[in-house]
Amino acid sequence: DTEVTQTPKHLVMGMTNKKSLKCEQHMGHRAMYWYKQKAKKPPELMFVYSYEKLSINESVPSRFSPECPNSSLLNLHLHALQPEDSALYLCASSQERGLAGGYSTDTQYFGPGTRLTVL
Amino acid sequence: DQQVKQNSPSLSVQEGRISILNCDYTNSMFDYFLWYKKYPAEGPTFLISISSIKDKNEDGRFTVFLNKSAKHLSLHIVPSQPGDSAVYFCAASGNSGGSNYKLTFGKGTLLTVNP
């Protein structure tokens, strides 16, 4: 089973709203990711959690706030977004590959995404 | 600086023929390469991967070839089917010092398989 689930599938929010995106995986992966994807562009990494600790924050604005409550769940809290934040938000998970001096990602499995529209 | 390049934005092939999608990379620290397929408004679907210790990996209709000296990989789909029509992303990962969970993606190639 290589399934990553995301809810909701679609979300429309105003610039003053607070909402959350949810992601779940039951593959025992210890690395989880949030990506943002605009049309006709590759996915753009936002955050990486490794063993439930934030490992990478790609200089994402503070209006996006990630949370990893446990090893299977990943949330992305949204507040005071801008219309330009409208995009497909993707969650992914992976195992780790041990390398000399550190770790790297193994195959990342993506969820179906949440289509976010900010009005 | 684009470390993973897919120089063909689109490719059109006839059903039943071979599709060849190409990818070049510049970072010699990359040691694991993946291909993803993506339909509009959906998440990328993992297709096939290859480690730098191999030069070929095959899974059904999909074969990935890696030429490390040329820093080039390709995805062959044979026979191509109309359902293969999608955007294909090449991605790479590796240890560039410390822990690195990043996948570096190419810009994608839109494959259209005509019936």
Give a description of the structure.
The complex is a heterodimer of chains A (119) and B (115). Chain A is mainly β. Chain A has strands at residues 4-7, 10-13, 18-25, 31-37, 44-50, 53-57, 64-70, 73-79, 87-94, 96-99, 102-105, 109-110, 114-118. Chain A starts with a strand and ends with a strand. In chain B, 0% of the residues lie in helices and 55% in strands. Chain B is mainly β and 115 residues long. Chain B is built from no helices and eleven strands. In chain B, strands 2, 4, 5, 9, 10 and 11 form a six-stranded mixed β-sheet that branches. The radius of gyration of chain B is 14 Å and the shape is globular. The interface between A and B is medium-sized, with 36 and 26 residues.
| Alpha carbon gap, first and last residue of chain A | 37 Å
Global shape of chain B: globular
Average pLDDT number of chain A: 92
Strand runs of chain A, count: 13
Rg of chain B, nearest Å: 14 Å
| Helix-strand category of chain B | mainly beta
How would you sum up the global shape of chain A? globular
Poorly predicted tracts of residues of chain A: none
Number of helices of chain B: 0
Q: Biggest sheet of chain B: strands, sense, closure? A: 6 strands, mixed
Oligomer: heterodimer
Quick structural gist:
Chain A has 119 residues and is mainly beta. Chain A contains no helices and 13 strands. In chain A, 36% of the residues are buried.
Topology:
The complex is a heterodimer of chains A (119) and B (115).
Chain A: E1 4-7, E2 10-13, E3 18-25, E4 31-37, E5 44-50, E6 53-57, E7 64-70, E8 73-79, E9 87-94, E10 96-99, E11 102-105, E12 109-110, E13 114-118
Parallel strand pairs in A: 2-13
Antiparallel strand pairs in A: 1-3, 3-8, 4-5, 4-9, 5-6, 7-8, 9-12, 9-13, 10-11
Chain B: E1 4-5, E2 10-14, E3 19-25, E4 30-38, E5 45-51, E6 56-59, E7 62-67, E8 72-77, E9 86-94, E10 104-105, E11 109-114
Parallel strand pairs in B: 2-11
Antiparallel strand pairs in B: 1-3, 3-8, 4-5, 4-9, 6-7, 7-8, 9-10, 9-11
